[in-house]
Amino acid sequence: MKKTHALAGLVLSTALFGAGLTNAFAADETLRSLADKNGIYIGAILNSQWFGGGLPGNYEQIHKSQFNIVVAENEMKFDATEPQEGRFNYNNGDKMVRYAQQNGMRVRGHALAWHSQVPGWVNNYKNDKQKLLKVLKNHIQNVVGHWKGKVAEWDVVNEAISNNEPQWRTGSVWYQGIGPEFIDSAFVWAHAVDPDAELCYNDYNLEQGVNPKAKAGFLLEQVKRWVKNGIPIHCVGSQTHVEDTTTDKHFIGSPDSLRSLAKELAKLNVKLKITELDIGFKSGINVSKSDLERQGQTFRQYLDIILEEPNADTYLIWGVSDKWSWLGGLNRQKGLIYDDNLKPKPAFDSILVRLQTYEPPKDSAKADSTVKDSTTKDSTALDPGQSIKQFNAPNSLSLHVAGRTLFVTGLASKTTAKVDLLDLQGRPVYSTNCINGTVDLSNIAEGLYVVRVQNGSTNLTKRISIK
Ligand code: 9MR
Predict the structure, then answer these.
(1) Is 264 a catalytic site residue?
(2) What's the pLDDT score for residue 391?
(3) Is residue 117 within 6 Å of ligand 1 at its C-beta?
């Protein structure tokens, strides 16, 4: 299945010659099939125009064949789901959930508590703390409850940190009326409604260094506090709206900085996801072929984090084609992986080749954590059953399958672990409680699965093969 023999040359020629490479691969190899094989989620938003049926048919065709995770550009936000107080509108979100189910895709929910896209009626309660607490709680309970079991992960809190200095964003209706505790509360409320959903804090400019003066440094201190206090946070979403640093020398931000954040979060047993990636150029500049090729390399470097860091699993791009992108509003252009005519750009090729050539380290304990150039790597065929993407938290939990029994070791004494079996699209297949360290899998069909064990605040996720 894997065409590794010709790849070393192809990788090099991609770097030199860019797009067009896709023709050299078998049609059945998509970003999606390769992401599945590597145990990661790769996705793009469904643009708002899709919901109104205003996009050409090949948009959807591309979307469902290339991606295994989806998020709505605007349709699950507060103003879309509760436009009037207590009157919820789930039509567009339901449409996306149906689309995802029909096409076996994981669904991301975006976003519950955010300062932007808040409907006007909420501002009627400005500074009324008790009422705002009720409003936010009611919203979260209804929206998360409506999509319980269908939306696998939520951006519970979005962009709550100030962009200019390391402190909370003080201008939001939630912060002004409630104070920073709206954040902790939002996580607790969401978890109470859907304990199986992964809950993320999502923000931008997190790729600018993990130090006390940068947003990521401030966030890390909050995540430490949340974890210490038992606030149910499972992931940080790095939006990663970045700019090409060669054509804009002033842009700060790098894949290495984001990787550092991933490593810090791993120590806390929290995942990192890239949730809104685009790599734009300044509007008005003439973007050359070599600029697009360099852009492809940057896309690849961010993908490396998701492939290589054990606690990173999602690579989501904020759009499909440059034709339908929010970037114009930010004075940027051409930040996505398909051009205006829905033709793949060099960035698409870079991602495809990287997914083709990536080999998980055989012994992850010895894995070199620095970014490696794929052109220097050997290519040997992978047994898909071995391509394990697992997040080994810094604890002693471990699991393995022998015959039809799952063995879990390292459980805290006298405790029960929750065990979930998911298919490779993240859909639940089987859930049970494990008391004595074993789970009987004799009723599960043969195949590849992801198993997730949760024991108190510790969890372990691993791909397994049932034969
Ligand atoms: O792409 C979205 C655009 O259509 C909306 O007009 C805009 C309004 O705030 O939100 C855009 O999406 C944002 C996302 O929800 C949060 N992170 C930044 C994204 C780009 O602005």
Answers:
(1) no
(2) 56
(3) yes
* Protein residue with least CA distance to atom 10, ligand 1: 74
> Is 381 domain-assigned?
no
Which two tokens mark 360?
């998980």
Residues 276, 293, 308, 309: which is the catalytic one? Answer: 276
Domain count, the chain: 2
Å from CA of 118 to ligand 1 middle: 13
What are the CA-CA distances from residue 360 to residues 40, 187, 302, 310, 416 (Å)? 12, 33, 16, 10, 31
Q: How would residue 27 be classed by pLDDT, with cut points 50, 70 and 90? A: low
The CATH number of residue 432's host domain is 2.60.40.3080
**Are both 353 and 392 inside the same structural domain?**
no
pLDDT of residue 363: 56
Poorest-pLDDT segment among 249-258, 361-370, 376-385: 376-385
- Say if residue 408 is in the same domain as residue 265: no
Give whole-number Cα distances, 95 to 2, 71, 90, 102, 318, in Å: 35, 12, 8, 11, 19
Which of these three, 340, 357, 374, is where a domain ends?
357
Q: What is the mean pLDDT of residues 70-85?
A: 98
- Is there a contact between 253 and 207 (Cβ–Cβ < 8 Å)? yes
For all residues of the chain together, what is the average pLDDT? 87
Q: Which domain holds residue 326?
A: 20-357
Q: Supply 142's token pair.
A: 């209804």
Closest ligand 1 atom, residue 117 Cα: 9
Single-letter amino acid code for the residue at 113: A
**Could you tell me if residue 316 is inside a domain?**
yes
351 and 392 belong to one structural domain: no
